[in-house]
Amino acid sequence: MDQGTEELDAVYYDTDDLRLIGASATLRRRTGGDDASWHLKPPLAGDSREEEQAPLSDTLPDALCHLALPRTGERKCARSSRLDHARRTAARRLW
User: Fold this and answer.
1) For residue range 51-62, what is the model confidence (pLDDT) as tens digits?
2) What pLDDT is recorded for position 78?
3) At the topology level of CATH, where does 2-90 sit?
4) Residue 26 pairs with which residues in a beta bridge?
5) What sign has the CA pseudo-torsion 49, 20, 34, 61?
6) Which 3-state string (H, E, C) describes 36-56?
7) What b/e sequence results for 16-32 when a residue is b if at least 16 CB atoms lie within 10 Å of its CB, and e otherwise?
8) What's 36's DSSP letter?
9) How far apart are the C-alpha atoms of 77 and 60, rounded to whole Å?
10) Which of 29, 50, 84, 94 is the most exposed place for a label (fewest CB within 10 A)?
11) pLDDT tens digit string along 22-77?
């Protein structure tokens, strides 16, 4: 059952030489949807990923910067790209 769409805006952050994406990690600020927040997704073994979140704010949270340090080589992260899109939502069945 279609319930509509959610408008999502994701702004991705990385170093100037794209060290995070090179390490298969993403750092983004997403608004819209039920999980609007800052997200850091570093890789785990295989194709798995873990996810750390921080509440929405206008600036990159220090806690996520600290967690990204092993992958950034202590280089500063800045806005690298933006993705606006709509996600179709559906009713969840309870059975």
Assistant:
1) 999 999 999 999
2) 93
3) Hypothetical Protein Pfu-838710-001 (2.40.320)
4) 41
5) positive
6) CEEEEECECCCCCECCEEECC
7) eeebbbebebbbbbbeb
8) -
9) 9
10) 94
11) 999 999 999 998 889 999 998 887 777 789 999 999 999 999 999 999 999 989 99
Query: Contact, 86 vs 4, CB < 8 A?
Result: no
* Residue type at position 6: E
Q: Identify the residue whose tokens are 């800052």.
A: 38
The answer to whether residue 2 scores a pLDDT higher than 60 is no
Could you tell me the residue ranges of all domains in the chain? Answer: 2-90
Query: Given the structure tokens 């069945």, which residue do they identify?
Result: 93
Residue 54: count of CB within 10 angstroms of its CB: 17
User: How many CB atoms are closer than 10 A to CB 36?
Assistant: 16
Under the banding of pLDDT at 50, 70 and 90, the label for residue 1 is very low
